[in-house]
Amino acid sequence: MEKRARPTTIDLGGKVLPLNLKTNARARRMTLKIEPGGHAVSLTVPPGLARHEVDGFLRRHHDWLLERMARFEGRDTHVCDGGSVSIFGIAHTIRHSGNLRGLTTIRDEGDGKVLRVSGPAESIGRRVADYLKKEARREITERVKVHAAASGRSYSAISFKDTRSRWGSCSSAGNLNFSWRIAMAPLFVVDYLAAHEVAHLSEMNHGPRFWALCEKLCPQTPQARQWLKNEGSFLHAVRFEAPLA
User: Fold this and answer.
1) Residue 148 and residue 157: Cα distance in Å, rounded?
2) What are 14-67's pLDDT values in tens digits?
3) 210-215 contacts, C-beta under 8 A, 24 or more apart
4) Start-to-end CA span in the chain (Å)
5) Tens digits of per-residue pLDDT, 178-230?
6) In degrees to the nearest 10, what's the CA dihedral of 142, 147, 148, 149?
7) Residues in Cβ contact with 81 at an 8 Å cutoff, skipping those fewer than 6 apart
8) Best CA proximity match to 136, nearest among 198, 104, 88, 102
9) pTM of the entire structure?
């Protein structure tokens, strides 16, 4: 009998998404999750499962997936002229200046904030992302310095990436890494993330002493953790690459 290939995509109400199917030797059951940003679905399975078992599991959870994906409606957007991007929790309307050269700047126009972007129209997304990276570095670096001084610890370096699995990390060598997408979150969340990684310089774990230090550095730690739990995935739904024609 011919063995059928495992599925690589999944159709959710007419929207076809990549299905990242992973086999884990330590898994005892199948687990399903929406990838950050809602751009893909991940399914982890124990080794040796037949195709019909995987198909049956996906069918049984189809409505659950539809319900979860519905949360991303209207949030899975490309950054573009006339669109909107959040900068430290404040919505900014994006306006293409039409100039081929110039800085990306914020202005107050009418009733709201406007992010003025120069350069070719096809580079709007990249230039907005560059602006967010610059702002993330400025704000995080300042807050790391404050929290490191308060905790009596030093760090080696700070870097920024577009990470999906975590918002930040701290290595045993004292290197701190952050997702630049955090620049779209409110400032109290940015402050928490800086405090969280600085706290790891003292406690390389998530035990009671770690959380006590984290809350000492950032009293809004509980609120920020809840915000990331509720809203964090939507920051990954924002697309900065130019949409396909």
Assistant:
1) 12
2) 888 888 888 999 888 999 888 877 888 889 999 888 888 888 999 999 888 888
3) 213/151
4) 43
5) 999 999 999 999 999 999 999 999 999 999 999 999 999 999 999 999 999 99
6) 90
7) 94, 95, 96, 117, 121, 124
8) 88
9) 0.81
